[in-house]
Structures are given as C-alpha cells and as structure tokens.
Design brief:
The chain crosses the membrane at residues 12-29, 60-77, 83-114, 159-180, 207-233, 245-267, 311-334, 346-367. With 369 residues, this protein is mostly helical. It is built from 18 helices and no strands.
Length: 369
C-alpha cells in the first residue's frame, strides 16, 4: 500500500497533494450534496474537449509538420533555437503550456542531436519553458488557471486579452533578447530534420473544426455539454486514452478543498484580510510556493479583484521550478537527456526566471496597479 502511494506521489504529485487537502477539508466540512455546487462543470468540460482535440492534432503530427516547415528557414544554432522558442510561445496560447512543452521540448533535443550540436539544448529548453508560461498567459485556453478564472469571474474576452497583453509583450521582448545569447555561428553546423509522417488532410480539417467548437464552448457560443458530446462523437475513440484525466481529477479535488475552506467564516476573514490591497503580490508569492494553479483556486473565492489575481498567478508562473507545473515537464525531459547537468539546468532556470519575475513586477508597479 505504501509502495503504491509512493509511486503515485512521484507520478502525480499535484493530484495526490490536492486529494489529500480535499480529504482534510472534509473533516472540517462533512460531505453533503452541497459539494456539487463547488464544482465548475463547464471548466472541466471545456478542458476535456481541448485535451481531446489537441491529442488529435498530435496524432496527425500537425505541430511536427509546422516545426519542420519553419526549421527549413533556420541556418544556424541561434535561428534554430529562436524558431523552437517562438513555436512554443505562440502554440501555448491555443494548446496550453503543458502540451506545447510536451510537443516541442523533445523536438528540440532531437533536432540539435541530429545537428550534432548539443550545447544550445539547455538554454533553448529553458527559454521554451518560459515562453510557454508567458505565451499561454494571453488567452483563456492557454493554461488551466486562465480557463478557470475566465469562467469563475465571467471575464469578457476583450478585458482578459488587454489585461495580460502588457506582461506578455514585455516577456516576449525579454525572451527575444535572451535568445541572442545563443551563439550564431558553429563550425560544421547543418540543420537536419526528421521528416514527420504524412499528414491526413481530412483529419486535420476534422480536428480544426472540433477545436473551433471547443473554443465556442469556452466563449459561451454554445453549451459546454453540447461541445463535449459532439467532440467525443466525432473524435477517434483511441484518443480518449490520451486525455490527462489526472488533471481533471486534480481540478475536482481543488474545487472540493476550496469550496470547503470558503464555507468556513474564520478562513474567509483570514484570506480577505490577507488579500486586501495585496492581490497581485500574494498570488505571485503563493504561486512560487504551491504552483500557480492551486494558488488560483485557493485565492479566487476571497477576492473580487479578478484583474490583479489574473496578473499575479500568470506572472507567478515564472520563478521557482514548481511555480508552474508545466516547468517540471521540461525539467524531466532535460534530465533524462543529460542527467549530469541537473544542477546547471536548475541554477540557470532559476536565474532566468527571476529576471522575468523582476520584469513583470516592474511592469505591474509602473502600469498595472
């Protein structure tokens, strides 16, 4: 039993911790039918649809084809890195930061290995990770906390976009600047790319339409349950195995935990006092300690200031390795490739991320308070 728990904790640490917190909260607030009201089924439904459709895109190698095409215009290590960073940055806005990193970080390792030039892999992956966390901040579907906040506060799409644009633009400029540190010239460097399998045009059209349908549910063009039914019916059934059900269960556990806490008067008073005039700072710091998705769930019931919370948890996605759990994905890929460079990755990652936290804090102080 203990061995199984240990394996699960290593494999799904966020789910296990969230489930533990939910169970503890049940001691304070015994289970009842009111638990149903804690759960935002629209968020779960939209997230499920997006994950299923993106799995379809991955199955037909859509992103690999896009990367392969763009890399034909790269002729040196810096250009290859910049293409991979830009791809991760922009794709994360539509397919989430996690999926963008799962897709393009392994590609980074493969491309530079084929080019017989492995030195740029570490800085490229770190900048891809930051790029995914920054780029995904711009849209409601870019990351789990944005999807939740967009639904929880019913934030208008235009307001959401213009709230995050200053931070995302500033982050993009710093990403571009840091990418210039990757050497441009390399003796004997030639770009070699593995050609992905041929893409099925009909499948591409199918999943593109299902993706638009999923976005329609996010933006309330149609009901979330209609989207779930249609996406499941018209997707390949094998893709149901690819959905990250642990993320959905994590959301359910967090809904229960936060719902129970929110029903306790002394907890309400504590968090409301804590957040009074300090929403951005509190959410940014909380993200460094417990990751930005749990921080979002924890703090949202106790403040009506959706703008500052949105800014804080997204700015807080940079910083420590656990500030965004998407960052752990990149870390695992890199240490599997180069286990002897774990410390160098960690220190470089932390230093680069602190630059972005500093930048976002300055932008907030000057323009976004």
């Amino acid at each position: 039993m203990m061995k199984s728990l240990e394996i699960m904790l290593k494999r799904e640490p966020v789910l296990m911790v969230s489930s533990f917190l939910a169970l503890i909260s049940m001691v304070l607030v015994p289970p009842s039918l009111s638990y149903i009201h804690y759960i935002d089924f629209k968020v779960l439904g939209c997230l499920f649809c997006l994950m299923l459709v993106v799995s379809g895109f991955q199955k037909i190698f859509l992103f690999n084809h896009i990367a392969s095409f763009l890399l034909t215009f790269a002729h040196n290590p810096r250009q290859v890195s910049q293409v991979l960073i830009v791809l991760t940055f922009f794709s994360s806005m539509a397919i989430t930061n996690d999926v963008a990193l799962i897709t393009f970080v392994p590609l980074t390792i493969v491309v530079f290995s084929l080019c017989r030039k492995t030195e740029p892999i570490l800085p490229t992956i770190i900048l891809q990770t930051v790029g995914a966390n920054v780029g995904s901040s711009l849209t409601p579907v870019g990351n789990p906390q944005n999807l939740y906040l967009f639904s929880y506060y019913s934030i208008p799409a235009k307001t959401f976009f213009f709230t995050m644009l200053p931070l995302v633009f500033a982050g993009a400029m710093l990403l571009l600047l840091l990418s210039l540190s990757i050497p441009r010239t390399s003796k004997g460097f030639t770009v070699e790319i593995e050609k992905p399998a041929k893409m099925d045009v009909r499948q591409t059209i199918r999943y593109a339409l299902l993706f638009l349908l999923s976005l329609g549910a996010v933006f309330n063009v149609l009901s979330w349950y209609s989207a779930v039914i249609i996406v499941v019916l018209f997707s390949e059934k094998i893709l149901l195995k690819k959905v990250d059900y642990s993320l959905l269960l994590t959301f359910v556990a967090l809904f229960i935990f936060v719902g129970n806490l929110g029903s306790l008067r002394y907890v309400q008073d504590f968090f409301r006092n804590l957040l009074e005039g300090r929403v951005f700072a509190t959410s940014l710091i909380a993200s460094q300690l417990i990751s930005n998705v749990p921080a979002t769930f924890l703090l949202s019931p106790f403040t009506g200031n959706s703008r500052q919370l949105l800014l804080g948890v997204n700015a807080g996605g940079c910083g420590t390795l656990i500030a965004s759990m998407a960052s752990v994905i990149s870390f695992k890929y890199f240490i599997n490739f180069a286990p002897n460079e774990t410390k160098r990755y960690f220190y470089t990652f932390t230093g680069v991320n602190l630059l972005f936290v500093l930048l976002f804090t300055v932008i907030w102080i000057l323009f976004l308070q």
